């Protein structure tokens, strides 16, 4: 053994230790973020052990023979994280199998008494007909949304039973009966485990997901306004990538939530009424709230875009509107957090949700804007009466055009003709310089970003009404409890832990 090999051994051991330590940390983090994942893994393991007894115990194996493998496959495919997803796949698989077995047995009865050649032709024609019609049915939106997995299972089971019965000596009835029983056993075990052993409800996940989206939008607005009026000067470059900060992560979860909302709503529609009141779960209303929140989120995206503008308002100008803007954003954030809290507690919103303080914040902002009229008509121009505005505008426009013409002396006249003494690289540098000068030379150019920022804040107030209306409609449909002034409201805005939504994978059919 050489010295080099002795020196390599500690390195390999250290790498192995680091790998095992990293693996342990990742496993611990996944289980800590959502302990239901560990419970679900135990449920799947127990269910597989239970159906494996059909193979391991001799009396049971003699009764079911090789068909026991269908129960194992069913448990692997059907048992999902939530009860709604398991019911959706289990019932689809069960009904699809029963219908396919019944239809295959009917075709076998018709074809068996007419010779082997006719039987082969009839089986081929039936496979072509059923395959064509079944595939065409999958294009219907309602069937695609609710019963697509059942249609696939029906087509697969029909082909397996029909084709295998042509070569297998045992009767088709016995073959179809054995497979149907085993699939029924597997589906029944999955449904029982999902409904009665630490159940996870898709409706509950959809409810919590909606609450977290409202809270995320509130935090994004607060962070945007705080960052915009911070004392530190911002340094925004043209080629700067969008940072993965808290603002981006919060509204990104809202804008990308459509598929998650639709999937959870679909699975929630299959779940039984698990409350004592047995109210119908309003999954459609949750989908509507998701659409309104995405509409609200687009405004937050535009608000964050104000932090990355090329033309920046001086800090001295921003300080003039700092207090009213922060006050208005604080009221919007407060309303969203109270809305999320009432939704989490399943109670109606407070009648004073849009209080006088929000209206007063809007009035204060309007007063602050009116107190600085010169910012929006030109900082170097005195205030003029309306009859003089047209004359001043024409005069300033003439001065601006003359100034541009003096600068454009060395600019290219056309695209085809190049001026002497200038290279192609110099042309490309000259144009953006002129365009930026044309914008910044305007007297009110530095006030445009703050005006856009204020307009977006006011727009968010208008969109807040739409969110409140949909949440109130949800409270009426879901029969939420009435609001009581004595209830203690606790707003939890801690974002250190985030629970992910676990959605099933429909890629596998067997």
From TrEMBL:
Annotated family: Belongs to the aromatic acid exporter (TC 2.A.85) family.
Task: Tell me the superkingdom of the source.
Answer: Eukaryota
Q: Name one GO cellular component term.
A: plant-type vacuole membrane
Main localization (coarse): membrane
Keywords attached to this Swiss-Prot or TrEMBL record, sorted alphabetically, are:
Ion channel, Ion transport, Membrane, Transmembrane, Transmembrane helix, Transport
Topology of this chain in the membrane: Multi-pass membrane protein
Q: Which Pfam families match?
A: ALMT
Protein name in the entry: Aluminum-activated malate transporter
Mention one GO biological process in which this protein takes part, according to its record.
malate transport
Q: Where are the transmembrane segments?
A: 38-56, 68-87, 117-137, 149-168, 180-198
**Which InterPro entries does this entry report, sorted A to Z?**
ALMT (IPR020966)
- Taxonomic path: Eukaryota, Viridiplantae, Streptophyta, Embryophyta, Tracheophyta
Protein localization? Membrane
